């Protein structure tokens, strides 16, 4: 699904992007995940973030702003493509760096990926109707992995 979604946005952005990265739980083989792809579209400069916003809007994406994370713009996908999370930022964006560090660590440490998946399943059951509590409850684990991966 990531490849299809990347191919959907590439024609509008191919002359300006640095990368389109598959991040989030679906990017780690075998990790428990909802079937929702997370994508980070990386552009060279802050000025190009605004150009990317305009171009994605022309594809039918709804720009949501930064949702409280400076330098990263979020989008709701068009109705005719599978639901996914798409963000645009530069390679210097801290949240982007965290996404890549976390993903790459879990990809190379399957035992930690399994522990994370087990925790996610337990928390999904416990916080079935409370997304904020679910996210809060896994933050200590995520921060621990980031620390192991070298996040300072």
UniProtKB/TrEMBL annotation:
Domain of life: Bacteria
Record-linked InterPro entries: GrpB/CoaE, NT_sf
SUPFAM superfamilies on file: Nucleotidyltransferase
PANTHER family per the UniProt record, alphabetical: GRPB DOMAIN PROTEIN (AFU_ORTHOLOGUE AFUA_1G01530) (PTHR34822), GRPB FAMILY PROTEIN (PTHR34822:SF1)
Name listed for the protein in its UniProt record: GrpB family protein
